[in-house]
Design goal:
The complex is a heterodimer of chains A (about 325) and B (about 230). In chain A, the strands form 3 sheets. Chain A has a 6-stranded mixed β-sheet, sandwiched between helices. Chain A is α/β, with parallel strands linked by helices. Chain A has 2 domains: about 220 residues, P-loop containing nucleotide triphosphate hydrolases (Rossmann fold, 3-Layer(aba) Sandwich); about 90 residues, Alpha-Beta Plaits, CATH 3.30.70. Chain A is built from 12 helices and 13 strands. In chain A, about 30% of the residues lie in helices and about 25% in strands. The relative contact order of chain B is 0.13. Chain B is mostly helical. Chain B contains 9 helices and no strands. In chain B, α1 crosses α5, α4 packs across α7 and α7 crosses α9. Chain B has one domain. In chain B, about 80% of the residues lie in helices and about 0% in strands. Chain B is globular. Classes of the chains: A alpha/beta (about 325), B mainly alpha (about 230). Chains A and B meet through β5 and α3 of A and α1, α4 and α5 of B.
């Protein structure tokens, strides 16, 4: 949503962070393979994908922490590498952010206050209270969840025009995560900015996301509006032989169950899909973002036993 | 420029480590030296010629502090969207300020040492090997080697961030081989009289400020080159 509650249309949005044919190779392994992507201004984009898909590498490239093996990275129209005027408008919250070992929570915040031009000290204070963070405690002594909360406070209070959250809430409990979503959304509504968020907890943030970039093994598998992406596939369930018939000639993304009853996720082909499924006696349901992501990225290795119900798919493993 | 100053101020956010720790260590070294000089009456026994290398503790600790500035403060600073260059310039600015402020402080200690007859026991902790009667020159002689040591620390820190502890070991082995090899070469060529003559030909200013300044610049350039591709 934008400030006025409308979805940004393609005409009014413009890319603020882009990659053009970027390849990033580390010793013997390709983290990103000829990737082109554009993050739109003032949109919340979810950067999704499995571990090792290249999400962190993409953010590190955007922040100029890494230099691509080939291709161009541009943020606010310039290469972010060692570019002070670009980075002054950027905030990157990393899951494994390091802090000097003698720093207390309050030290980290005063450092952030010095360096982020849009820093909101009052907002930072209220976030500290929300997350129950002890200001005078040394960061080294914080629990994993509290450590994540420090990053979240800095990321939100920095009010940077472009903010990257890379798996920002390792160790945070469900209440604290909800707090993060609420604060993020409320502050975003008042102070519109570009937000890119990577996470495995897809179901939790699905409602937050306006746009989704799905990475898989260093390539982009999907780059679309969250609603469009959800509408791009349907889930059909029913007798296995009928499922076979329905899936024939269609783009089958995932199939679960091997006995009499099966469920399949297929890419939507036409408006007649639903009618045809009905004719075969199959039940049609929309797919959730999480189910779709699992379907697109599981490479057949994670088949669900026939007895499993949908609750297993939605389960959030920590 | 503002961000460079902010990067320098980053070193003052939790100031006890970078500012106070080196002095605390130096103070403990001074206390031990006063104790030994007092107990063993060393000044009397050596005719006042015995020196102490205790002041080196200050310089060595500072070297470590700057190593940590790169190994632990830089990743944090980059997490707050500072560029490596700005961080390095800010840290250099801080090092220059710290060196000269320390030079002034050391000069004050030197005056106290002289005024108290070597802390009451004839100890020459701050005097060093050369007697310099010019206050400004004395401050410079304290400050410039400190700056060189700070840049050495940053350069080693950059090696550590780039290549890990293996890199630091390799650097250490390389330094030992390089220096040891030079010593062997000079000995083989009977070059020591020449080396000695070179040293005595140098003015105190050149020896304790000029050449250290050149070293500081070399370390600074090397450190920056190493830092440019550091990944936090």
């Amino acid at each position: 949503m934008n400030v006025d509650g409308t979805l940004p249309s393609a005409e009014e949005s413009r890319p603020v962070a882009t990659m053009h044919e970027v390849t990033m190779r580390f010793r013997g392994h390709t983290a990103l393979d000829n990737v082109s992507v554009a993050f739109q201004e003032n949109v919340i984009t979810g950067l999704l994908g499995r571990n090792g898909a290249g999400k962190t590498t993409m953010m590190q490239l955007m922040a100029g922490h890494l230099v691509p093996t080939s291709g161009q990275v541009e943020v606010f129209g310039a290469n972010p590498y060692e570019n002070e005027s670009v980075l002054a408008r950027m905030s990157l919250v990393k899951e494994n952010q390091k802090y000097p070992e003698y720093f207390r929570v309050t030290d980290a915040l005063s450092a952030a206050a010095m360096l982020f031009p849009n820093w909101d000290a009052a907002f930072a204070q209220s976030l500290l209270a929300d997350f129950d963070l002890p200001e005078k405690r040394r960061i080294k002594k914080l629990s994993r969840g509290m450590l994540s909360a420090v990053g979240i406070v800095i990321g939100l209070a920095s009010r940077a025009p472009i903010t990257f959250f890379d798996e920002p809430y390792l160790g945070l409990d469900a209440v604290a995560r909800q707090m993060f979503y609420d604060r993020l959304l409320a502050d975003y509504a008042e102070n519109s900015r570009t937000i890119v968020l990577s996470t495995h907890l897809i179901e939790e943030i699905a409602d937050l996301l306006e746009h989704v970039v799905l990475l898989d093994r260093g390539r982009i598998l999907a780059d679309a509006g969250a609603d469009d992406l959800r509408a791009s596939a349907i889930s059909v369930s029913g007798r296995s032989d009928q499922i076979d018939r329905f899936a024939a000639g269609r783009d089958l993304l995932r199939r679960e169950g091997a006995g009499q009853l099966s469920r399949a996720v297929v890419r939507v082909q036409s408006r007649d899909d639903r009618t045809e499924a009905d004719a075969l006696g199959l039940e049609v349901a929309p797919v959730s973002l999480q189910h779709l992501v699992v379907s697109l990225t599981s490479h057949g290795e994670a088949t669900i036993p026939p007895s499993a119900d949908s609750a297993d798919l939605e389960e959030v493993s920590r | 420029m503002n961000r460079i100053v902010s990067a320098a101020r980053l070193h003052l956010v939790a100031p006890w480590l970078p500012l106070l720790l080196p002095w605390a260590i130096m103070a403990s070294s001074l206390a031990i030296n006063i104790l030994i000089w007092g107990v063993a009456d060393i000044a009397e026994q050596t005719g006042g010629r015995a020196g102490t290398g205790g002041l080196a503790s200050l310089y060595i600790t500072l070297c470590v502090v700057y190593m940590q500035a790169v190994s632990s403060l830089l990743p944090f600073a980059m997490g707050l969207s500072l560029t490596r260059r700005t961080f390095y310039l800010g840290t250099s600015l801080f090092a220059v300020g710290q060196s000269f402020a320390s030079g002034l402080l050391l000069y004050a200690f030197l005056l106290i040492e002289r005024g108290t007859g070597g802390w009451g026991v004839g100890l020459k902790f701050f005097r060093g090997f050369w007697l310099v009667d010019n206050a400004v020159l004395q401050v410079v002689i304290f400050a410039v080697p400190m700056l060189a040591v700070a840049f050495l620390g940053m350069a080693v820190g950059a090696v550590y961030k780039r290549f890990g502890s293996v890199g630091v070991y390799a650097l250490t082995i390389g330094a030992i081989l390089g220096l040891g090899g030079s010593v062997a070469l000079i000995t083989w060529q009977n070059g020591w009289p020449g080396v000695g003559a070179w040293f005595t030909d140098q003015s105190i200013l050149a020896l304790l400020a000029g050449w250290p300044l050149l070293l500081a610049l070399l370390f600074a350039a090397g450190g920056y080159a190493g830092l440019r591709r550091v990944v936090p």
